[in-house]
């Protein structure tokens, strides 16, 4: 219809409106694009689902992953038997053994070091790393009302073994020298530790002061140490060795208790040494329970040889207790020349018998004479060893 409302119907009509055709091609193309996109999305989802549900075994067969293995810092040597030995710089050796079923067993052991780096502590080793000499082995201690007491470990390791000073093992002329009374004089103790050669064994009196500190200094200095326990002398009580003296008049339980009080003063010692004690050492009934307890705890007993009536040696053999007996009292006469003569006598005994033990107190004269004599002994073929090396030990006959 035209725009002139007054024109007669049917007249002046313009050309008729043309009908538009429907674009079927475009619609069909759109459907195709939608179908292709939908199919692609469906395929992606299906593939992801199949990958998630695929068995682990099949995946491993398709794409086997190499087993992870950490390479050691050092080279490995594999012998024909399948043994792998690793010598890393970390302070430990690792030995890998391939078993019959293909599994690998790794065993670790301490590696020899040059003195630097971490310290590896092996609870079963005999002797101590010098860097750990002042540190007790906890497996060789038990708690008590009197402090930590020495014991033999469940594996059989004894304090006598753990805290022993190593020696050459040669069966030449061997001499052990024990300097006792450390801890009674602070200046005298410090002088003895600083001046005496490390081969000299040091015995600490339980009535001394600052024993734990002196023990640590002595051990760091390379010394083997003993604990010196007061025993009843013949002229007791006019000659009183000190508090908690072991007495023949006391019960066995009380004497063992006093022994434990003494033992709890310090740690890291290889044995017990008597202080005086002529009457007690001569009494088998009093000595037996004391020696039995010492041996049970993995310690040695050193008799200072001051009493000719001592029964300690016979009892110790009967009870299988490691023990030693001093051959010479070095400073009965407190002059350096006299002490040097006694040291020469000690050497003669050692040359005759193979070994000998001398004891002295920590007087300045004794320390000076022993230091001087020790410097010359090695040139004469005398090896100075710790007292544990000369003990009669039933475990190592």
UniProtKB/TrEMBL annotation:
One Pfam match, given by its short name, reads: Polysacc_deac_2
Keyword Nucleotide-binding assigned to the entry: answer is no
An example Gene Ontology biological process: carbohydrate metabolic process
Q: Name the keywords, alphabetized.
A: Membrane, Transmembrane, Transmembrane helix
Indicate yes or no for the key word Transmembrane. Answer: yes
Q: Which InterPro entries match?
A: Divergent_DAC, Glyco_hydro/deAcase_b/a-brl
Q: Which CDD domains did the record assign? A: CE4_DAC2
Which residue ranges are recorded for the region named Disordered? Answer: 1-20, 56-75
TM spans (from-to): 27-45
Q: Kindly give the Gene3D superfamilies that the UniProt entry links to this protein.
A: Glycoside hydrolase/deacetylase (3.20.20.370)
This protein is called: Divergent polysaccharide deacetylase
Q: Which organism is it from?
A: Rhizobium hainanense
């Amino acid at each position: 219809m035209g725009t002139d409302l007054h024109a007669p119907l049917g007249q002046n009509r313009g050309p008729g409106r043309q009908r538009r055709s429907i674009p079927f091609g475009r619609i069909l193309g759109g459907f195709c694009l939608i179908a292709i996109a939908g199919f692609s999305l469906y395929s992606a989802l299906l593939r992801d689902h199949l990958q998630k549900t695929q068995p682990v075994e099949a995946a491993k067969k398709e794409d086997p992953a190499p087993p992870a293995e950490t390479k050691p810092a050092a080279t490995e040597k594999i012998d024909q038997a399948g043994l792998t030995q690793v010598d890393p710089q970390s302070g430990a050796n690792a030995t890998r053994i391939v078993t019959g079923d293909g599994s690998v067993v790794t065993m670790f052991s301490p590696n020899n070091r040059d003195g630097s780096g971490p310290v590896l502590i092996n609870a079963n080793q005999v002797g101590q790393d010098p860097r750990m000499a002042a540190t007790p082995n906890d497996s060789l201690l038990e708690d008590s009302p009197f402090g930590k007491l020495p014991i033999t470990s469940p594996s059989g390791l004894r304090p006598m073994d753990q805290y022993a000073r190593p020696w050459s093992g040669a069966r030449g002329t061997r001499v052990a020298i024990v300097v006792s009374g450390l801890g009674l004089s602070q200046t005298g103790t410090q002088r003895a530790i600083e001046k005496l050669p490390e081969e000299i064994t040091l015995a600490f009196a339980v009535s001394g002061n600052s024993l734990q500190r002196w023990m640590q200094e002595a051990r760091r200095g390379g010394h083997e140490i003993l604990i010196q326990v007061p025993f009843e002398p013949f002229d007791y009580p006019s000659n009183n060795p000190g508090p908690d003296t072991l007495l023949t008049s006391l019960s066995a339980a009380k004497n063992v208790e006093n022994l434990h009080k003494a033992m709890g003063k310090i740690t890291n010692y290889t044995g017990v040494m008597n202080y005086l004690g002529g009457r007690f050492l001569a009494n088998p009934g009093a000595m037996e329970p004391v020696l039995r307890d010492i041996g049970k705890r993995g310690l040695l007993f050193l008799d200072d040889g001051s009493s000719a009536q001592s029964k300690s040696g016979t009892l110790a053999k009967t009870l299988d207790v490691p023990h030693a007996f001093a051959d010479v009292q070095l400073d009965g006469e407190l002059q350096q020349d006299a002490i040097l003569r006694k040291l020469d006598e000690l050497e003669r005994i050692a040359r005759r018998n193979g070994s000998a033990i001398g004891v002295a107190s920590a007087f300045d004269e004794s320390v000076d004479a022993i230091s001087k004599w020790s410097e010359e002994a090695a040139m004469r073929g005398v090896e100075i060893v710790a007292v544990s090396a000369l003990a009669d030990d039933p475990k190592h006959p």
